[in-house]
Amino acid sequence: MRRMKSFIADKKYLLFPIAMDAPCKTVAIWTKNEKIYEFDVPIGESGSPYRFQYYAPLNIESWRGQEIFIEVEDAWDFLEAIGFSDDNVHTEQHKPQIHFSPEAGWINDPNGLVYADGIYHLYFQYNPFQNQWGNLCWGHAVSEDLLHWKQLDTVMFPEKDGSIFSGCGIVNERGLLKLPDSALLFFYTMAGGKTKWSEGKKFTQRLAYSLDGGKTLQKTAEPVIDHIADENRDPKVYWHENSQAYYMVLFLEGHRFGIFRSENLQDWECTQTLELDEAWECPDLREIPVEDGGSRWVFWSADGFYFLGEFDGYRFITDGIRREAYQTTIPYAAQTFYGVKDVISVSWLRTQNNGQYYRGVMALPRKMTLVRSGEDIRLRMMPVENFLNARKLVYEDNTCELKYKPKDTVAIQIQLLGAGKISYVAEINGNNICFDWEAGSLTVNEQQAFMGNNIHEMSILIDAEICEVTTENGLYYGVFELNPGCDLRDWSIRSREMLNMKVMEIS
User: Fold this and answer.
1) pLDDT value of position 427
2) Catalytic residue from among 109, 284, 303, 463
3) Rounded to two decimals, what is the model's pTM?
4) Residues whose CB falls within 8 Å of the CB of residue 430, separated by 6 or more in sequence, listed in order
């Protein structure tokens, strides 16, 4: 039996009570004339009081003063537990300090990374209603330093044409589309057919814009690129200076991608389709500087596979070699920022976050450069300058054993330098970390990765459950997830030889 509750929208937020592990039911929200939202929400068993873990806020400011109807199948106790507030709600959880994680819910791909007016904008694939994939929206967080993030209201929600899949953001610097040059423009995939509401619809590429500094986004009515193939998705747009036009890279299907070109951001011409070895979804194409001079174009896909080549604004010609940026499988779907001088990348970390109301974390933003290594060129991924400047040295010694207990909950970076080859065993609040230089193998609990042979330098960054490790100044990069409840209150490291050990805190 369908149940319906009506109310006058006199508060800014509607608060859904989320029973995390319960089965989902379809919840529809109507005005008198039309359906405005439809979500799959986990709804618990009837009971008084109704048992749930947290509130998921939905901004209903646009309908203030109007009568709103909430419809759901046979869930009267859920309807009675719905709340209303003029203030956003927050959950109290042990969370990373400098890695973005949502208040609650599921996140995946970073979207719309753009820097404008002194603010870094991070949009992201978001399900506010449970810590599982679904109901894909665009969440939004902002930062002034790429380290400390504030989550703002969700900016785009699923609709009758589909869910809101991944995309990118740029500044309208050339004043196109009859919009001011201060406008922020966002290209994204409307994923038709992924919800009951959008059955029969296809995947298309869409455009939205913001005139208020990214706080709210206005969708345009028509696709900028119609359906091409299967689940074509994940547009990435950038300006190509030499050919004086914008280009878009787009995932098509399988291991195929398309490159499109436009001078007005509205009319797009496909100039190339290409197939890349094992690469798929979430493409990016950027010119990256080589540290000793020059630059190369790099085509990037979701798994951290990258291909070097040349790009003239029309076609990307690769050397055909698939290289790997990650030594572990946790980082995924990285994107680069628009509007910054350096090439700065952020990836989604596919963490479980057991025991938390949220699932998924964003990696520390990293500056990407290329380094000549013998006959090859390799990618270097180092923390951004703001991270380096935010560190406070609290310990340094040449020793075979380190024991350290921080006073507060902070992120910690451990740097190890060895005159010979580094090997060590570390214990961090019940988590075991071991590196064996002979095998080049780093083991974090049961997770193992190759981090290079003959390692003389290693950085270990730990922030709550996140452990990011680089060796050889960022030439090798891996991410591991620590066991739940790691609060960094008990450190020990033992090495086979004397190492220079530095401990730095980032609050």
Assistant:
1) 87
2) 109
3) 0.96
4) 483, 486
Q: What is the mean pLDDT of residues 17-27?
A: 95
Mean pLDDT, the chain, integer: 94
Which regions of 48-193 does DSSP assign to beta strands (E)? 54-59, 67-73, 83-85, 105-116, 119-127, 137-143, 150-156, 163-171, 184-191
Please check whether residue 189 is in contact with residue 217, taking contact to mean a CB–CB distance below 8 angstroms. Answer: no
Are 338 and 114 in contact, with CB atoms under 8 Å apart? yes
> What's the rounded Cα separation, in Å, for the pair 190 and 181?
25
Which residue in 174, 112, 182 sits closest to 141, CA to CA? 112
Is residue 397 part of the annotated active site? The answer reads no
In the chain, the domains with their CATH numbers are: 2-85 (no CATH), 105-385 (2.115.10.20), 391-506 (2.60.120.560)
Asked whether 463 and 472 are in contact (CB, 8 A), the reply is no
As a whole number of angstroms, the distance between CA 504 and CA 37 comes to: 47
CA distance 286 to 242: 13
Q: Which runs of consecutive H residues, i.e. helices, occur in 375-490?
A: 385-390
Rg (CA), the chain: 24
Round to whole Å and give the CA distance between 478 and 463: 14
Query: Locate tokens 């909430």: which residue?
Result: 70
**C-alpha distances in angstroms, 361 versus 98, 125, 316, 488?**
10, 11, 32, 18
For residue 245, what are the β-bridge partners?
240
| pLDDT exceeds cutoff 60 at 487 | no
In the DSSP assignment, the letter for residue 63 is G
Residue 98 CB contacts under 8 Å (≥ 6 apart), including other chains? 147, 148, 364, 387, 390, 411, 463, 506
